[in-house]
Amino acid sequence: MVDARQHVVIIGGGFGGLEAAKALDGPDVDITLIDRVNHHLFQPLLYQVATAGLSSPAISAPIRHILRNQKNVTVILGDVTGIDVERRTVSVGHDAAHGKYGYDALIVATGAGHSYFGHDEWAPVAPGLKTLEDALEIRRRVLTAFEYAEREPQRAKREAWLSFVVVGGGPTGVEMAGTLAEIGYHTLRSEFRNLNLDRVRVILLEGSDRILAAYSPELSDKAKRQLEKLGVVVRTQSQVSHIDAEGVTVGKDGERICARTVIWGAGVAASPLGKQLGVPLDKAGRVIVGRDLSIPDHPEVYVIGDLASYTGPDGKHVPGVSPAAKQMGRCAAGNVLLHMHGKPTRTFRYKDYGSLATIGRNSAIAQLGKFEFSGFPAWLFWLFVHVYFLIGFRNRLVVLGDWAAAYWTYERHARIIIGNEEIPQQDLRCRM
């Protein structure tokens, strides 16, 4: 039996952290959940905010509100600046007197950020998509590009504003490219008087030999054909060597693509907080965890979600997707309770329920074990699954309503530009 109430600190209010907190709802545990933002974000639909299909509150909810009925949870808004696994403390902010939290067990679920493969100087001109701030910034750049094109008299500069390059052929890149094509060719068709929107170009660049490499070659090929049907130019084996405010340089030959809007979706890097645990990391900076998701020599510390590098008993690496994070959260919470009561912890076993990727209007692919399908049926299935897993009944209604309206009218009602940063005009070093 446990002699006193145990204190569990959870860092991160994403899929894994929230799932762990809910699984620890009981009389023997006090929980402190720490996150740098006050909301949980349904990241699979973040690209919809970036492309003005949904508003921010439709895919997010305050963490305090989600856990309001769980009396053993205290939510702290703050940035974790240090973890001392020897003293079992977590530091928040820079206030040494009031910013330290001791723990009996720790669950680290801080996720991942962008990786520019050693070219962090590309970040200001090619934003990635991980947070609401990222989504709003991409939305501003996309919508502003059409505004600048409307008033640009020179053809080469105007067409550079109407060119959009998405780097990375994973799910995020594919979803962004397909939706950008819909915006350019349909949504804005009747709203600009001085633009020929047939001149819009959406280019998807992928360094390997096919997009959506995690899927079967057959589904990958179907996705490529569906994107091209939407008007996207898909280029594989096209490695980016340089990005600046004017466009992208591709390949060893230095081919230039003029595009004033570049979106990064090519790589992710684990949260830097993993380094503070003092344990081995993989090449992507993820923490290599044991069979029960704990770290070496510290069975009271668990790492889950995108920050964890875990190979299951079947020899397969667990992917960085939300279902895996949720399953890890439940497993880590269960092992915390088992460890507290002196019982053997359990091995984490990932259950793969399949993969989905939407490509655009009426287009998606689905891989559910050996069963594969694509096109409109896959799109309907994708829609149902994402609405089902949204947090909150209100969010489900809002998203369904917005999607229904967009489907029948092609409208995107979240087309509000936030921020009015003036983008400097430059002489293009390439021609269209």
What features would you describe in this structure?
The protein is elongated, with a radius of gyration of 23 Å. It is an alpha/beta fold and 432 residues long. The termini are far apart. It folds into two domains: 6-36 and 78-114 and 268-340, FAD/NAD(P)-binding domain (3-Layer(bba) Sandwich); 120-266 and 355-409, FAD/NAD(P)-binding domain (3-Layer(bba) Sandwich), CATH 3.50.50. It has ten helices and 25 strands. Strand 6 (80-84) and strand 7 form a beta hairpin. The strands form eight sheets. A six-stranded mixed sheet has the order 5-2-1-9-21-20, covered by helices on one side. It has a four-stranded parallel sheet with strand order 13-12-11-17. It has helices at 15-23, 46-50, 63-66, 132-151, 155-161, 171-187, 217-230, 322-340, 376-389, 393-409, and strands spanning 6-11, 29-35, 39-41, 60-62, 73-77, 80-84, 89-92, 100-102, 105-108, 112-114, 163-167, 201-205, 232-235, 240-244, 247-250, 255-258, 261-264, 268-270, 287-288, 294-295, 298-303, 308-309, 355-360, 363-368, 371-374.
